[in-house]
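Supplementary Text 2. Reproducibility record for the structural model of the 375-residue chain.

All settings were left at their defaults, and a single model was retained for analysis rather than an ensemble. We include the record here because the model underlies the residue-level annotations in Supplementary Table 4.
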Amino acid sequence: MRANPSLIARLRLINTEGIGPVGYKKLVLRFGSAEAALNDVIHKKNVPSEEWAKDEISRSVAAGVEIVADDDRRYPQALLALKDAPPLLYAKGNIELFNHRPMLAVVGTRNASIAGRRFASRMAFELTENNVLIVSGMARGIDSAAHKGALYARGQRGPTVAVLGTGIDLVYPPENENLYRQIAEQGLLVSEYPLGTAAQSGNFPRRNRIVAGMANGVLVTEATQKSGSLITARFAADNGRTVFAVPGAPGDARSEGPNFLLRHGALWTEKAGDITTAFSALPSSPLPRSTERQSADLFTMPLDNLQKSVDIPPIKSRDKNTLLTYLSAEGVDADELIRSSGLDAPTVALLLIELEIEEKIIRLPGNKIALTGKK
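Retained model, structure tokens:
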């Protein structure tokens, strides 16, 4: 297959050191095309070779990945309004999902409590059932929980969109390999980074602008006040998207972010209906049906009755501080804490006794454990 000269030029230009999405747009506007801009830049900067670009296209085709340019009708139209929209997106899965409406971004902390993960999964499930497409970043915690809730909907054929902070051919975090595969089968994987791009801290804030920019609104669940989720929410608000926030209990640092947003105008959100009502005036399109047979390996049991939660990596050490991340001020059932943490019951019991002595937890009626808020 002969590679598209325009795509080759675009790949070389956007991957030239010192040229980002904003600079790329300015160059294309100035010279009229990526090819013309490249002819000028090639004499001034270290530009990737034509052979590299052709190989990138060939490897993408072999991996079932399409590279979608910003002038392609399938490109997410909502992103075009952003001054730093990526000129090219790597996409694997159902590209029709790029322009589904309505779409909700779900973001939150990686160190989410069991209650927070369950809430994100339930919301994503119910919203997907109501034709709202969920987009998130496939990170640990809230992101993964939201994707899994969406995938479980519509008879375990629900779609969801994951925007990656790595090359689209890499799975990060590695424990999300099954999730990655299922999203590729039922939904859509997206990245702006070349194949093979490893996880780097600076990639993820950039990734979040795409998560928020594609959506009609952003839902923030558990997040600290310095969390990247609040940056995503601020970006969404600045670009005319609706910000939703889930109120949290005082004393839990993961409630600080949503509560801060609520004090500054975010919409109070406790149930899926709060979002569908806000979205009711938006134009909508039906979720396309998946043609792939669903792999049920992640969903062999109901969401709230998993022997080991696929949303929560098992604790490999008997670290009390790690165990604390699974708790919340609302309280978590002790049996569920054992199942979700992957620790045996005697170990959890011992750790809880130590945490109770340190006054970091309190036991509630109904065999529940809650955070006290003390450091």
